[in-house]
TrEMBL record:
GO cellular component, one term: cytoplasm
Molecular function (Gene Ontology), one example: biotin--[biotin carboxyl-carrier protein] ligase activity
Cross-referenced PANTHER family: BIOTIN PROTEIN LIGASE (PTHR12835), BIOTIN--PROTEIN LIGASE (PTHR12835:SF5)
InterPro entries named in the record: Biotin-prot_ligase_N
Name under which the protein is recorded: Biotin-protein ligase N-terminal domain-containing protein
Bias (Basic residues) ranges: 188-201
Disordered as annotated region, ranges: 177-201
Organism listed in the record: Leucocoprinus birnbaumii
Residues covered by the Biotin-protein ligase N-terminal domain: 1-93
Amino acid sequence: MNVLVYTGPEVLQSSLTGVLSSLKALLLPHYAVQPIEHTALAKQPWMASCALLVFPRLDQPFTAPSSTQIQDYVNRGGAFLAFGAGARCSTRDLVSGISDLSLGSSTSLLKFFDKFNNVYIHPTFGGGSSEPKLVKLRSLDGDVVRAVYEARPSEFTGFSGQKGIKVLGRYVPEEGEGDIAGVSPPIQHRHSSHKKPMSPN
């Protein structure tokens, strides 16, 4: 099985380099870690042999024609991991018609339908850049990671009260509970549950 890493024009090269090297160190020889560009995603039969589709950090919205293929892959049980991405959860399709005009610069055509909660999940990418800074993250197990570089905090909105949502980590503030740094929502197809994690790079 293959782990495919997206290499389209939206990808930050520094993130791509780090993601490829990290995944190869973790997964070889059990999985083949291979790059894939947007034309191949749209036209090649990659889904059957793909164990995981990975997006490094993008510096602009993902609006490639392969959005449909990626959505079909996830909705049929495929696994999708996006670094440096946020997400919006909504009961309506935010990218249909003219409603996407209100989403700002991070609007993406990519969306997933969570049948468990009857909501749409819209990954968000890009939307500006700044100098990376050190942030602290608290993991699902309560461990604090103190040296994570983050250029733009990932934002997750609309997930409060949704069932089956696993918060993978939170930013550690000076006091109180921090904002969500990564989630793993259930994307259901028929009788199975598949998760689409998104987290900061």
